[in-house]
Amino acid sequence: METSVLMSAAELNQLKKAAPMEGVLPVFHERWSPRSFANREVSTELLKKVFEAARWAASSFNEQPWRFLVGQRPDETYKKIFEALNEFNRKWAWRAPVLILGTTKTRFSRDGRDNRVALFDLGAASSYLTLEAAALGLATHQMEGLDTEKVRVSLGIPPDYIMGSTIALGYLGEPAALEDEKLIQREIAPRTRKALGEIALGAWDQPAEI
Amino acid sequence: METSVLMSAAELNQLKKAAPMEGVLPVFHERWSPRSFANREVSTELLKKVFEAARWAASSFNEQPWRFLVGQRPDETYKKIFEALNEFNRKWAWRAPVLILGTTKTRFSRDGRDNRVALFDLGAASSYLTLEAAALGLATHQMEGLDTEKVRVSLGIPPDYIMGSTIALGYLGEPAALEDEKLIQREIAPRTRKALGEIALGAWDQPAEI
To answer: Which residues of chain B neighbour A120 with C-beta distances below 8 Å?
Structure first.
């Protein structure tokens, strides 16, 4: 094992932290998506706080289309969510004590009209949830790789709901616990993002004048 | 004009604030979506910060599929976004000095595969943006009501990108400036959300044990 992976959670969080910017909330630069989770349960008191944050996301017509299925190891919901994850995610996600499946209603309750931003609004609520988790010292990792039809059947999710991400939640663990060398290297690699001028545009293919 | 609408931005922000909870980041309870914006420009320095926050959202395979078209009044991009808004939104959104159109790429750059969470990830980045705006003392209001095909043509958005919300951004204005009594009443009404047990489920139609 290389020396580089023998680091504490605090050291790893420091390594993963993006450069701070004055006036920007630190939580945006501090949150990252580990795959190694400590063998430690998360209290219901903390879980309440992350869902309290999710409640307050904005949504079209205040529909709040999001419904989160919360699996707490070793309950049945946890097992059903875990079993629907793809092979790669199952390799590491079993370490997280909480698995949360985000779902969202595709029609407005007020008039039955298609809600073209249902998935967008779920993404918002999931962000509030994961940012609040980071603020509480918890780690989260959202996954796309899931057999959505399998979990729809096993958890009885109605046809007018679609799935967003599955969120692994817990306390950060040691990188070395991942065992797989490739996963360990990804765990300790610095976070990267596109430049501001690639995502804020004044016209298509032209950076914004900011 | 009723006395109730003669309130300062600070008083209105206090009225709109959800009940705080220990350990929950205040910004989740403080952010809300006004329709009255003050006649005051937003500096590029602050705009940089809101997009800096958006950069750091999580995304599937770190694709960062989001691209934001930033219209700053009175530029052409602002006009084109504004003209694609529906009639209701055009009634009030002209007061916001910045209009931001969120778009997202529906295929992964790495392999061309469909990205089922492209809109979800845009929702995340848009949340980071709007939360950071709130932290900076700015107001935002996201809109679904937009002629997406009209704006696709006028702004030259490629076919593999879809639209999320349009974000009106600026400084909070006086409720009375909205003039329309119905809009004013909505502006000063308390924010409402579903109960925790309706959005955090242990099984479908059953609250989570948290």
So the answer is: 119-120, 122-123, 126, 164-165
